[in-house]
Amino acid sequence: MSAARPCAECNGTIRSLIGNSGSRNTMHIVIFILVILILILGPGLWVKSVMARYSYPTDRYGRSGGELARELLNYLGLQHVGTETTEAGDHYDPITRVVRLSPPIFNGHSLTAITVAAHEVGHALQDARGFRPLIWRTRLVRWVGPIEKLGAGMLMLAPFTLALTRAPVIGLLTFLGGMLTLGSGTAIHFLTLPTEFDASFGRALPLLDQQRILQAGDAHKARRLLTAAALTYVSGSLTSLLNIARWWTILRR
């Protein structure tokens, strides 16, 4: 009888340790998920915060973002590059060679409007100078949309193909083909990162300095805005990687 008590106590201790271990594992999973969410959502939230902060005062500069874009393009000898407003977000279109700015940026006179306009002109300058990452990205974008859709379909068909044919090689090839096509979107996002940073700090910032556009005290704020503009696609890169990881998890079940 006396020997049974220690055994019971041991069993209780083991159950307690297992329970504590399970709690720790759960906590680690929760922390991991929170970190991933911060990595994905954090850059986007920070970008919006910075853009909004320097959108005031709304009349800080005499020229609008659209006017500055036109002025810089003419200075660079890029009179053939157009400027126009868009509801699809600020961007440079290398196919039609147009700098497109959202109405608040095109018509705005804030530091945000001026800096974002210069950033997009930076992309036009990259295009004119034959910046390789921009060229590669432009080529990939033309066909990556249909390829990504095909890849998603292949991933969905992979387990059914394996079940019907009972040939593991076919299922594996289908799976690998789908993963590669989904990975093309990730490749575009990562090619975008050096393109964005070069547009901000290799093109836009020197232009703002050379033309003495910025008012006193705005240089460090402009750097922050240019960093925000360059980080716009970071969350997209991470989301693409998570999309691949999600499909990998589903197909392993």
What does this structure look like?
With 253 residues, the chain is mainly α. The protein has 2 domains: 1-53; 54-252, no CATH class. The protein contains 8 helices and 3 strands, in the order ααβββαααααα. A 3-stranded mixed β-sheet has the order 1-3-2. Strand 2 (91-93) and strand 3 form a beta hairpin. Helix 4 crosses helix 7, helix 6 runs antiparallel to helix 7 and helix 6 runs antiparallel to helix 8 (234-252). The two termini are 47 Å apart.
SS-based class = mainly alpha
Strand content: under 5%
Strand order of the largest sheet: 1-3-2
Mean of residue pLDDT values: 82
Element layout with pairings:
Elements: H1 4-53, H2 65-75, E1 82-85, E2 91-93, E3 98-101, H3 103-106, H4 111-129, H5 132-165, H6 168-210, H7 219-230, H8 234-252
Parallel strand pairs: 1-3
Antiparallel strand pairs: 2-3
Helix pairs in contact: 1-7, 1-8, 2-4, 4-6, 4-7, 5-6, 6-7, 6-8
Brief characterization of the structure:
This protein has helices at 4-53, 65-75, 103-106, 111-129, 132-165, 168-210, 219-230, 234-252, and strands at 82-85, 91-93, 98-101. It has 253 residues and is mainly α.
Summary tags:
253 residues, mainly alpha, three-stranded mixed β-sheet
